[in-house]
Amino acid sequence: EKAILQALAELLDSFEGLVTYNGKTFDVPLLETRYALARLKSPFARLMHLDALHPSRRLWRLRLESCKLTDLESAVLGIEREGDVAGSEIPGIYFDYLRSGDARGLQPVFYHNALDIMTLAAVTVELARAMGDASTLNSPVDLFSLSRMFEFAGSREQSVETCQRALSGGLPEEIEARALHQLALQYKRQRQ
């Protein structure tokens, strides 16, 4: 394990940032623990880290039941996976490998991980596209979520404009009330 951790640290030397999906609360802390146990310096402290889970939830949670990566793949990207192993089966496959030493059973796991990486890249592009140009969003609910993200980031003008577009697109009653409240607070701050 120590050699693998050293190899990962060397690989990360040439990068300035890291993009993950739930990496801030799972992957990176797990790896940092492994570095500490191996008495090696963790390479993650110096890296910028975008955990795409959090902005994905902010943008799509009001519209979608789940923001799991595979659910975003289907609902946002319009892609359905074929021939993939369920993520819940991966630990069992890995433990089978540890017991048997036969790595051939790991192939579906590598395929699953490759699909996750491609989906993560595509979701990150969709997030950047939405932040850069709200007109790329078709759902008024997503527009309202984006307006909240703009407000949180301090981009009040963009927040007001995006919230108005969401309201004019037609929101469900409960979300419409929240959007009107948010808009009223922003107008109040502007003394309008």
Throw out a few tags for this protein.
192 residues; mainly alpha
Mean pLDDT: 95
Number of helices: 9
Low-confidence stretches: none
Strand arrangement, major sheet: 1-2
Distance between the terminal alpha carbons, to the nearest Å?
A: 61 Å
Overall form: elongated
From the helix content, strand content and strand pairing, which structural class follows? mainly alpha
Helical residue percent band:
55-70%
Give the structure's gist in a few sentences.
With 192 residues, the chain is mostly helical.
Q: Any overview of this molecule?
A:
This protein has 192 residues and is mainly α. 64% of the residues lie in helices and 4% in strands. The protein has 9 helices and 2 strands, in the order H-E-H-E-H-H-H-H-H-H-H. It has helices spanning 2-12, 23-37, 53-60, 69-75, 90-100, 107-132, 140-152, 156-169, 173-189, and strands at residues 17-20, 48-51. Strands 1-2 form a two-stranded parallel sheet.
